Amino acid sequence: MTTTLILVVGAIVLLTAVYISWRAGRLDRLHIRLETAQAALDAALLRRSAVCLELAGSRLLDPATSLVLAAAAHEARTAGPDEREHAESDLSRTLRAVVDQERFLEKVHAPELLEELDSAVAKVVYSRRFYNTAVGVTRIAQRRWLARTLRLAGHTDFPRFFEIDDAPPVALATE
């Protein structure tokens, strides 16, 4: 009887340890996925600002428009972590204002550059959605009582959503 009780208690302890280990591993994989998504988002944002700087320096735009676009792209590239969302949203709005100008596509005869710009803008949208999905899943996993009680996430900060205005310019979407 005592041997059976010891075996049952041992099996319960073993299964509990395996479950806790599995949950900790899942949380670790979610954090790795989150870091990967953040790196992809950073790369997409940098690529978009680089293409905007290339468009601004291409001499295809009038000087005032080039200056405004270059300033917004530079601000987005150099913004600190606290101002980044605001700077990236400003770049999106500036880009829409530039590209959605009357007869923009007729004036700018650089199909490769416009195609690259369209691709960069689309990748920002997809990367941000993927990142925010990863944040949501990770936050749910960190909120579970077992993760909170046993501190399975360690001392990592609660991940934050990245909310920006990333609507693409209408002229690029209809091209």
Describe the protein's architecture and organization.
This protein is 76% helix and 0% strand. The model has no long low-confidence stretch (mean pLDDT 91). The chain is rod-shaped and about 90 Å long. The longest helix is centred in the N-terminal third of the chain and has 55 residues, at 2-56. It is an all-alpha fold and 175 residues long.
Q: What's the structural blueprint in terms of helices and strands?
A:
Elements (H helix, E strand, L loop, with lengths): L1 H55 L6 H16 L5 H16 L4 H4 L3 H33 L1 H5 L20 H4 L2
Helix pairs in contact: 1-2, 1-5, 2-3
Task: List descriptors.
single chain, 175 residues, mainly alpha, 76% helix, rod-shaped
Q: Radius of gyration from the CA trace?
A: 24 Å
Helix content: over 70%
Shape: rod-shaped
Largest sheet: none
Structural class: mainly alpha
Count of extended strands:
0
Q: Short description, anyone?
A:
The chain is an all-alpha fold. Helix content is 76%, strand content 0%.
